[in-house]
Specification:
- This protein is 44% helix and 11% strand.
- The protein contains 10 helices and 5 strands, in the order H-H-H-H-E-H-E-H-H-E-H-E-H-E-H.
- The protein has a 5-stranded parallel β-sheet with strand order 3-2-1-4-5.
- Strand 4, helix 9 and strand 5 form a beta-alpha-beta unit.
Length: 214
């Protein structure tokens, strides 16, 4: 059994940034880091070399995590439509983030959401919903869900934890079993909320469609 070295918070932030850039290479790791910590480049270079020496980052690329490096961080996945961001979403995402180091949010494609519930009215295009979620500070990375089943996206992200909202219909047992079939040791949890009345469906019902024409 490999023993992970003791890491400080900045080490985990570095590893998390490398992991996220692997999922979304459009933003290089250094650029992602410097958006949060505007430090001189030599500091990042020295820190990455330290992580290489610890066996957490690949020596050849210095931008990819080793298996040990990936095991050093805990990734939490949350999925949803996010057609209307409300306090219930915020409390759920904050609760999900508390279970790990990295929060990745998968925004459902409009076609996928319609397939799950054909009667559901979706007001915002998927690119706008993705932008809304990406703007939330608690979210480390928001990505568009892949076409097909939920598990194609799960296989891509390989999260340590899948956090379900209190009102999501997915079965924890079914998701856990499907993850095992794909050789993913992912823990599935159900989150609670202090404001169960804060739901998109209820808000839309009370406000009515005229609200979206403003």
């Amino acid at each position: 059994m490999t023993i992970l070295p003791i890491l400080n918070p900045f080490d985990k932030i570095m590893l998390s940034s490398l992991y996220l850039s692997g999922l979304y290479p459009n933003i290089p790791p250094l650029e992602r880091l410097r958006s949060h910590f505007p430090l001189p480049e030599e500091i990042y270079s020295r820190k990455i070399q330290e992580l290489v020496n610890l066996g957490l980052v690949e020596d050849g690329s210095k931008s990819r995590l080793t298996y040990l490096g990936r095991d050093a961080i805990k990734v939490v996945l949350v999925g949803g439509v996010f057609d209307l961001i409300h306090p219930g979403h915020i409390t759920t995402l904050k609760a999900a983030k508390s279970h790990g180091d990295v929060l990745v949010v998968v925004v459902a494609r409009t076609s996928t959401a319609a397939m799950i519930n054909k009667d559901r009215r979706i007001y915002h295009e998927e690119c706008l919903r993705l932008e809304l979620v990406s703007s939330l500070s608690v979210v480390d990375l928001a990505i568009m869900g892949r076409e097909g089943t939920l598990f194609e996206t799960v296989e891509y992200i390989k999260p340590d934890v899948i956090a379900l909202g209190y009102d999501q219909f997915h079965s924890e047992k079914e998701i856990a079993e499907n993850c095992l079939k794909r050789k993913l040791t992912t823990r599935v949890i159900r989150l609670t909320t202090p404001i169960p009345a804060s739901k998109s469906s209820l808000i839309k019902e009370h406000l009515g469609e005229s609200f979206y024409r403003i």
